[in-house]
Amino acid sequence: MAKIGAIIDGKYEILKQIGMGGMSTVYLAMDQHLNKQWAVKEIRLRADDRESRVIIQSLIAEANLMKKLDHPALPRIVDIIDSRDTIYVIMDYIEGEPLSRILEREGPQPEEDVLEWARQLCDVLSYLHTRKPPVIYRDMKPGNIMIRPDGNIRLIDFGIAREYKEGKTSDTVALGTKGYAAPEQFGGQGQTDARTDIYSLGVTLYQALTGQTPSEPPYEFYPIRYWDPSLSGGLEKIIAKCVKPNPQDRYQTCAQLYYALNHYEEEDDVHKAAQRRKLRAFTMAAAGFALFLIMGFSGLFLESWANTQNYDSIYQRAEKETEASEKEALLLQCAQLKPDSVQPYEALIDLYKSDLSFQVDEEMEIKTTLYRNLEALQSSEGYAGLAFELGKLYWYYYEYGSGDTNFVTRMKGAVQWFEDALEYGGEDFENAEMAQVYRDIGRFNEDITMEIEEASDAGKYAPYFQSLQQLTAQMEADPDEAEIVMLEVYRLDVDALETYARKFESDGITRQQMEELLASARAGVQQLETTTDKTDALKADVTARLDEAAAAIERAFTRSRVPESERYVTMQYQGN
């Protein structure tokens, strides 16, 4: 085990031990170069046996998976150090407390808290499951959920996560935690998939609400209201569905589960009884309408009935609706009536952009319907255009995280849609060139931090600069472009110049090229008249950084070079 005060790899000073598991010990460490705290996972390799091989393989898999991911609820892996019989994994230090410790100390948690954690866990699992290929976590349990002081969650320990293999019938190695692992994780019952994580999440929620697990007496899932009659009957049914032994009987996606959690009161017996009473009343009213039909009012009744069933009439109602939540509900209904139509999704995108903010709950609403109809949409003529607009919705409007975290998260959320636009649009797709530009910029920002760590970033900066030039030129050529789009593009330009001016110079970008890009951003920002508090703040942020970007260009072309270590600190400070 590492000693307190020891220096790992010449820069990570061990401060204290903060955790221990069967496979590793975790320490808090200080990066002496960056003056930043990291978590250091120490894995001591034993003799060359099967367990050690699994440890090594899971470590490599974890590192390869984590470096591809960017989500506010996931820690980043920034370094891996192989030191003879020990491997050190350097990752984000997460302030907070494991849910398992909270449950040990306090027992069952309030229903409203558990529901909020469940929604956040659904969101991060949905993010993992919608990667290409999907990432299956496979070890959901209270011990792997960190509750931060602000109440938000972080999901830790990806040691047994895996990428889903299309067409594979079973997993190579059975891994998981007894009591939380789904039946298919053991005994060769099939390949784990998204439904495996839904099972483990259900067990975790069950324990958080009741304090019980099926690995303890009575060794089975009693309804949650057996332990606490005050709990919701709707939530009871949701959890019972999550932990069905047969994956086919569970929720099939986390988007479906998220929707159920947002409407759990509708599953409550009391609510359903009220609905049945309404149904009986409706049946009586319908019988009355039948009588009116006989009496000559058939036209009015049929018109009313058609207005509730016909796609065109519902869409027209949505177009006229001024209340956002009602408009959203009508458009989602249209998407269900015509699974292959891109029209309601395009209208939803416009709706979500109208307040300059694409929220997480809005994302889950559109994704729930979109993924249900994805196959039909992908075969439709307009899918490439829809994917392109979805990419721009994430790129410019997505609100998850803050500051630089949100900046990168937006790009990563967008990249998959730009890739779909290119894949399904073909050579004739009118926005193919711009989709490629967006995709390339997003991929650069996804990969560059790890490539800097691995010293494999040489030659990556000139193509990135050229993509920025293309994006800026395209944006400035559109006289109707939204002000938030213009400001976000200029912020991206200024950030890149401020952070990577020396790298651009090393890759052959001239001083004139950099100064022209900066001059374009300066002129554009100064001429732009903002109309909202959000764009006011964004304009002020970009304006405040213009001079620093100019200074960065100046430094890049002076003989007095800043040491490489200082440049690295600057890049880390900027969050890239």
Would you write up a description of this structure?
With 576 residues, this protein is an alpha+beta fold. Among the domains are: 7-92, 2-Layer Sandwich (Phosphorylase Kinase, domain 1), CATH 3.30.200.20; 97-267, Transferase(Phosphotransferase), domain 1; 458-576, no CATH class. Helix content is 57%, strand content 9%. It is built from 21 helices and 11 strands. It has helices at residues 50-66, 99-106, 111-129, 194-210, 224-227, 233-242, 254-262, 269-309, 311-320, 324-337, 343-353, 360-372, 374-378, 383-397, 403-425, 432-453, 461-476, 483-506, 511-527, 533-556, 564-574; strands at 7-8, 12-20, 25-31, 36-44, 77-83, 86-92, 97-98, 135-136, 145-147, 153-155, 162-163. The strands form 3 sheets. A 6-stranded antiparallel sheet has the order 1-2-3-4-6-5. Helix 3 packs antiparallel against helix 4, helix 8 crosses helix 9 (311-320) and helix 19 runs antiparallel to helix 20 (533-556). The longest helix has 41 residues, at 269-309. It starts with 6 loop residues before the first strand and ends with a helix.
